[in-house]
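[09:14] KT: can someone run the structure on this one? pasting the chain below
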Amino acid sequence: MVEDKTKTTADMNAIPGKSSGTNGDIIEKLYEEKERLENEIRREYRNARKYVRSHPEEGLAYSFLGGVVCGLILAKIFSR
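[09:31] RB: done, structure tokens below
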């Protein structure tokens, strides 16, 4: 067998995602925070999609105005 030169050991009986000690507590808190943020972002995304679907005319108006403004800016730049 090859000797472990880093002097580290892994617990083969440990449950993945679960650690012991202070590092384990920190990892667990970070995992819970990640899940909370994922859920919050999903909720915000759904709300944004519902708003856009219920107000399509505003999205169309903004995109049209943005296209007109970009067109005017490009016309000014290239007309020199």
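[09:33] KT: thanks! The radius of gyration is 27 Å.
[09:34] RB: yep, looked fine to me
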